[in-house]
Amino acid sequence: MTPAATSAHLGARATQQGLALIIAMLIAALAAAVAVSVATAQSQWLAEVDHRRDQVEAQSIALAGLQWARAIVDADARGIDHLGEPWALPLPATPVENGDVEGRIVDAQAMLNVNELATAHGPLERRRFTRLFAALGIPETTLAAIVDWVDADNVPQQGGAEDAWYLGEADASLAANGPATRIEELALVRGMTVPSLARIAPFVTSLPPGAPVNVNTAAPEVLAALLDNIDAGALGALVASRNEHPFASLEDFRGRLPTGVAVIDPDLISVSTGYFFVSVRARQGETIAQAHALIRRDNASASIVWQTIE
Question: Of 296, 154, 95, which is closest to residue 307 (Cα–Cα)?
């Protein structure tokens, strides 16, 4: 073999060896990349499994919390209901395995009921709502729109809204023209803003008609809406008296009212409660679940009317 041929042969072998080395390095890199990808996918899968497990466990604990609340309400002695009873004490964040749980029961009849606006009590109920909304800075036109939302007819109140107005909006919806199930539905009402809904939420609810306001648990703002001719000082004294000694009966309540103060709608006040709202928050790891429910209690038992889980 000539020197030139030998040199060419050696050059070809070097090229082949270099190519083989490059291919080997490429294969090694691919193998490493595959290994990393598999490890990452496995880690993500395990994290997803852990998250899903925590999510299911958190939801299960939250739902169990609703049953706890139902049992608390059911065990409460029938008679008067007030804020010094066990059901009114919030459950603080209580440790459970891998997390914690907390909950609260609220008297749903401590608030004004929007569905009463569409009943025979409507005119008197509107007076109560007018007083409350004025104190909260909510326009009276918003109240008119709420009346139109829950009543059955299609005749708009002054400043209110029925189908014709909602059809002219971008979403082309209709007025509900029926009772509200949850207060959040009022977000769809003409003139209702997010801040306004947040402002009225502690004082306004949606229950079946005929559920009177419990004067033992109503906030001062609600009590003021129930009464004519009461000033801030007299209201404060009435609330302080109630805190010391809850009203034992409606006669007791009326007897402790200041002279000249009158109840706007005597048929829709009470010293006991049949409906309670429950909120439960459960945490498992980094996952949080929240459950909400409306509980109805009668003389026989307590049952869940509706519940949600998030």
Answer: 296
Any domain includes 19: no
Residue 62's Cβ-side half-sphere holds a number of Cα atoms within 13 Å equal to 24
Identity of residue 205: T
In a domain, 131, yes or no: yes
For the chain, the domain total comes to 1
Give the position of tokens 């390095």: 25
Residue type, 57: E
DSSP-assigned beta bridge partners for residue 213: 269
Is 92 domain-assigned? no
Pairwise CA distance, residues 269 & 65, whole Å = 30
Q: Please give the Cα distance from 25 to 87 (Å, whole number).
A: 70
| In-domain check, residue 294 | no
Q: What CATH number corresponds to the domain at position 187?
A: 1.10.40.60
Q: Which amino acid is at 196?
A: S
Radius of gyration of the chain (CA): 33
What's this model's pTM, rounded to 2 decimal places?
Answer: 0.81
Expressed as residue numbers, the domain containing 163 is: 117-201
By DSSP bridging, strand 269-270 and strand 213-214 are parallel
Cα 230 from Cα 260, distance rounded (Å): 8
The tens digit of pLDDT for each residue in 200-223 reads 999 999 999 999 999 999 999 999
CA distance 111 to 223: 9
119: left (phi over 0), alpha (psi -120 to 50) or beta: beta
Indicate the SS3 state at residue 117.
helix
pLDDT digits (tens, 9 = 90+) for 122-156: 999 999 999 999 999 999 999 999 999 999 999 99
> In 3-state terms, what secondary structure has residue 44?
helix
